[in-house]
Amino acid sequence: MMPDDITELPEVVCDLNASFGGGLYFSTCSGTTIDLERLGLTTGAAVGLRFLFNSGADCNPAGELADIMFVGRFVRDAEHGVVMQMEGEVFWRSHNDGSFNA
Asked: Which of 44, 77, 58 is nearest to 14 (CA)?
């Protein structure tokens, strides 16, 4: 189910193939670093902050945005350093107006 309060969250790319279980994702994707730099942050400075993570510029066959997304935070993991942690479940960007849908 889609969270209600996400429209003000900054978006950051997350490599959804970089999961290592428990809703945790490595934060080593270059897109993650680029998005954080645009926000004036590093992964370390982003720890504890809430973001809207997206799978990058994914499109459906019609060329409409179809990103897989989730709300989460950067957290410190004892073994892996700073990682992204999912809150709740994934949802998809709307195909129509840039809003969100489940």
From this structure: 58
